[in-house]
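--- STAGE predict ---
source: upstream dedup step, 1 unique chain passed
mode: sequence only
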Amino acid sequence: MAAATPPATPPVAAPRERGAWPVRRLVVAAAVVVATGLVAAGLFVGGDDAETAAGGNRVAPEFDLKDVREGQPAVTLPTGKPVALFFFASWCIPCREEMPIVQDLFENQDEVAIVGVNHLDHVADAREFMSEYGATFPAAHDPGGDVALKYRLRTVPATVFIGEDGRIDEVAYGGLDRSEFDEHVDGLTLQGSRG
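--- STAGE serialize ---
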């Protein structure tokens, strides 16, 4: 009878240097936290300079949210006419400059629907903000920022200009003055008259 061979022993891992893994984990965790903070700052802190980006001809995502104000109908994306979709927040300084312009457009023209989306705000702060500026246009309350994510926005204020066909024409970032708003609104109405 042949002699039994002893079972093979599993390879032994090299001893780990004490404290090496925790330090690496801390460095990776710190890098993730910093990167996340930079991304969040870039996405949700508005600047003073307006910038416009092409809409990419994407269909504007639909939404159905409660209005910031109590007792108002739910806010949805209007269809069949051009839309200026204004993303704002009470904590956004450039939004304070744009709010009277947006309200004036809502009151004094009817070719383009004016709709607001209150972004990452407490409802009480949003109500107070709209009241302070006498804003009466429909304004959806989006405390989690889901609508901005659907629209791939990176900052507030942002105004998404949507054509009569429901496709995103342009996205304007930062504080727009009245002449810039008028230019975008005129572009939407001209686009509709050509179609």
